[in-house]
Every structure is written in structure tokens, then in C-alpha cells.
Design a protein that fits this description.
There is one protein chain. The chain is an alpha/beta fold and 362 residues long. It has a single domain, classed as Alpha-Beta Barrel (TIM Barrel). Helix content is 41%, strand content 12%. It is built from 14 helices and 9 strands. Strands 1, 2, 3, 4, 5 and 6 form a 6-stranded parallel β-sheet that branches. Strand 5, helix 6 and strand 6 form a beta-alpha-beta unit. Helix 4 packs across helix 13, helix 5 packs parallel to helix 6 and helix 11 crosses helix 12. The longest helix is centred in the N-terminal third of the chain and has 20 residues. The N and C termini lie far apart (68 Å).
Length: 362
């Protein structure tokens, strides 16, 4: 069977390396049995481009320390690329990603997983972009000062006024707005404000599985209409209702099986509501302890393509799913990003210090 290249929207390898190896890059070139990601399995799975997630655990790291930890994560990604130049290549735009992919290396991009990591400052957001971050997830699993999360108490009814400014500023500087993790009200507010195609980097369809991390039908349709992309996560509790119910009820006994077929069902659901141009893959490897049978690690992507091919998917549609949709959405914001990096994007939107009502003079 044809090996289809994959542009994956979300991988938490950086945090795993922090936990297991203290950000050391030595010895990452071989097999790593304690992670779901290593170069040997990357080659086997056909991974061609990756948004490497830079995530900070807000339950353990607070305030300005989240900014520091985010910078450490970004630094690690840059050092990883430099340490393994035959395997990875830095990319910030779709054109750069295609060039790296054509060289046989993994085009490596950065996504920030959580709006709390800007510390309430649009200046921090802009500096993440300058360091190569091309998307930000508006929240992680906790509601923050300016946006409601899907898995925490709602405090704002979606986005605050500053949250809307965050979305506008991300559009201005070419950072993609990621709607994974956020409450449906936050999704809808962001779509109301956004002027560029949005993304969902690692979620499923709410109608197929009632996990609050999943996306409701009206948002799925709207993202398709906005020429965005919805990237399906492989997290078992997002994929099958019986597995979600088992988790909610305490997880006793044997877990209901989740397989590659369940992932394919979510991809087809997104396709049917949003269009084949709006589907992608955001597995969340190294962000979930368990993965579906047949998709246990980054070496297994091609099993998903085989399943979809057996359902009648064309070669063109499989290539759109694998890489082309994600590249198209990135490219739609590349001119904004290029202008920003050249200092030609105009004046910032909103206040730099988001949570300060006025500038105080000493």
C-alpha cells in the first residue's frame, strides 16, 4: 500500500523529555521504549511534519513561571532540531514545511498549548511567534482569566473582551487559533471574531462521543465553511462512548476496546459535516497514556489510511487528510506571519498588559 505522509497537529514529546530526561537531547536518536515517539517509529509511520506541542502543567507551574517553562519547551524543540539535522528540519511556513518534507526530514513546527502560558500579556504572545510558534490553543483544561475551558467551570460565557483581542492579535501576527480544549461558547466567540481559518488540533466529534473535549456539530460545520481544519485525536476516551462512560464510572474491570475503526469514524463524521478539505490528524501521542488498538505509537499512522482506503477513500482525499489540508490552513496565515516577522504588520491590537487597567508611572 502507498505510504501517506502525515502532518500531525499535536505531539507532547517535549514534555515527556522534560519529565524523563530533563530536556537532554543525548540518546534520543535511538529507540525510546518509554515514549510513544522516536525517530525509528517516525520513519515507519510516515510522519512528515509535526506541530510539536509546548505545554506547561498549570496545576504545578503558576504565574510567570509558566512563561519560563514555555520558553524552556521552545528552547528544547530548537535544540532537538539542531541535534538531529538528518531527521528534523525547522519550518515556520507552509513553503518551508514542504521544502523540509521534500528532503526526507520531518518538518518541525511549534504550537503553544494553553493561553495561560502568555501570562496575560500580548507581548509574550508576540515573542512566542517570533520564536517560531505558529498556533496557540486558547486554553488547556483549566478556565483562565480570559477564556472558558471545556473541562472546567465556565466563568466568562466564552471569551472576555481581552480574549477577543487575543484572537485578533493572533490573526494579525499569523498565529493559528486552536479551538481544542475550549468550551463551545469559547469556540463560537472565537469564530465570531476570527478573520483567518481556525484549527482544532486534537479533538473528536461530540455527537459520536460526549466527552466535553469534543466539538459540537455547529462548530464543525462552521470550521469547514471557514476553510479551517479539524484534526482528530487518538485519545480513547474521546472516541467511543462506551470508553467514555467506563472512565466516568471509575474504570473498573476491563476497558472497552477502542480501535483504528473508531478514529476513522470520527474522521468520516468531520468529513460529512465540514467537507474533506477540513479533516486532519492530531493524534496527541505522548499526551495520553493509552492509544487505540493498532495506533499505539507514531509508527502506526498507516493503519488509519488502510482503514479509510478500505472504506472507499480516494488517493487524493487521503493525501488531503494526511498533509495537504493542514498545509493549506497554515499557508492561509503565512503572509500575516511573514509581515509580522519583517516588522510590517502595523500596530498591535489591544493592550500589551492585559490584566492591568491603566499604566502606572513610578
Amino acid at each position: 500500500m502507498t505510504t501517506y505522509p502525515v502532518f500531525d497537529g499535536h505531539n507532547d514529546f517535549a514534555w515527556e523529555v522534560r519529565k524523563q530526561f530533563g530536556y537532554a537531547t543525548e540518546h534520543l536518536g535511538g529507540s525510546i521504549p518509554t515514549t510513544q515517539t522516536d525517530f525509528e517509529r517516525i520513519r515507519a509511520g510516515g510522519l512528515a511534519a509535526q506541530y510539536w506541542s509546548v505545554w506547561v502543567n498549570p496545576d504545578k507551574i503558576h504565574g510567570a513561571d509558566q512563561v519560563t517553562a514555555t520558553l524552556e519547551q521552545i528552547d528544547f524543540i530548537h535544540r532537538l532540531i539542531a541535534a538531529y539535522p538528518n531527521e528534523l528540519g525547522a519550518a515556520r511556513t507552509a513553503a518551508e514545511a514542504r521544502e523540509v518534507m521534500a528532503s526526507g526530514r520531518v518538518a518541525s513546527l511549534i504550537g503553544v498549548e494553553g493561553g495561560a502560558q502568555i501570562g496575560g500579556s500580548l507581548a509574550v504572545l508576540r515573542n512566542y511567534a517570533r520564536l517560531g510558534a505558529r498556533y496557540m490553543t486558547l486554553t488547556w483544561s483549566r478556565t483562565i482569566d480570559w477564556a472558558d475551558s471545556a473541562t472546567d467551570e465556565a466563568l466568562h460565557g466564552g471569551l472576555t473582551d481581552f480574549g477577543r483581542d487575543v484572537v485578533r492579535e493572533m490573526n494579525r501576527i499569523g498565529m493559528l487559533v486552536d479551538l481544542s480544549h475550549v468550551a463551545p461558547s469559547t469556540m463560537r466567540d472565537a469564530l465570531e471574531v476570527a478573520s483567518r481559518p481556525p484549527i482544532v488540533t486534537h479533538s473528536g466529534a461530540l455527537s459520536l462521543c460526549s466527552h466535553p473535549r469534543n466539538v459540537p456539530d455547529d462548530v464543525i460545520r462552521e470550521i469547514g465553511a471557514r476553510d479551517g481544519v479539524l484534526m482528530v485525536a487518538f485519545v480513547p476516551s474521546f472516541l467511543r462512548q462506551e470508553r467514555r462512560d467506563w472512565d466516568v464510572n471509575g474504570g473498573g474491570g476491563e476497558a472497552p476496546a477502542v480501535t483504528v475503526k473508531d478514529v476513522a469514524d470520527h474522521i468520516e463524521y468531520f468529513r460529512d459535516l465540514a467537507g474533506v478539505h477540513a479533516v486532519g490528524i492530531g493524534a496527541d501521542y505522548d499526551g495520553s497514556d493509552e492509544m487505540p488498538e493498532g495506533l499505539e505509537d507514531v509508527g502506526c499512522y498507516q493503519a488509519l489510511f488502510a482503514e479509510l482506503a478500505s472504506r472507499g477513500w480516494s488517493d487524493a482525499d487521503l493525501r488531503a487528510l494526511g498533509t495537504e489540508n493542514a498545509l493549506r490552513v497554515l499557508e492561509a496565515s503565512d503572509d500575516d506571519y511573514t509581515r509580522f516577522m519583517a516588522g510590517e504588520a502595523g500596530e498591535p491590537i489591544g493592550r500589551t498588559a492585559a490584566l492591568i487597567g491603566s499604566v502606572e508611572e513610578e
